[in-house]
Amino acid sequence: MAQPFGLAGVMGWPVSHSRSPLMHNLWLKQHGIQGVYVPLPVQPERLADALRGLVALGFAGCNLTIPHKVAAMAHVDEVDPLARRMGAINTVVVQPDGRLKGFNTDGFGFWQSLIDAHPGFRAEAGPVVVLGAGGAARAVVLSLLERGAPRVRLLNRTEDKARQLADELDAQGRIDVLPWSEREAALAGGALLVNTTSLGMQGQPELDLRLDALTGDALVCDVIYVPLETRLLRQARERGHVTVNGLGMLMNQAQPAFHAWFGVMPDITPELQQAMLATL
User: Fold this and answer.
1) Active-site hit among 29, 69, 101, 161
2) Which residue has the higher pLDDT, 200 or 226?
């Protein structure tokens, strides 16, 4: 009996910038799976129709990117409990009965990227400083709390948005929302600094942050991957900190999605890393 042709893709608007097709198609080839992963440009008003169309078209599922991660929760049949706590989904899996189930693998991808860069790092090592309060911040904060971070200092240019995020995550008081103006003082004693804002991304203003208050053994992460080394990471590297860019998070979050669709857990190989770097 012939192996069924596997179909998956990424829905976004726009979506042409996504590196996900490169990753997943390379994995399909490596594992000898007949299939294809395609970009799916879907306007926000057509999201519900597009998601239902996955079943009719024989898709195993899809990833979701901006601006669909939150809105899609209302258009799937079931949401994984962790994704519901995060308030967003980035992966949809078509179940055998045709129902759609939503997951969020961003938190896994973020945590694994930290461990890949610094195998000895532990979330309970000390307070964590997170800049930003968008979708990436949700995944980062929750993944750290779930793994034992004692406190998260959350700062966002719009403070109300940070307070809303802290309230929604229901962290038993472990999230301290601080004014953006106190971002440098907030670094004192921190074991980890994570930038989840767009500041420092190609085409965006730089993140204005001096690292003087950061202890020497703190880990510094930026979820941005274009450019690979933001000014924040360059400053941190020059101070001797272990640094983590956003490429590892991007690749690691893709692994469990591929496994859910195609039944194989792929590896992040040097070939994949080189192929990704060649596009940046």
Assistant:
1) 69
2) 200
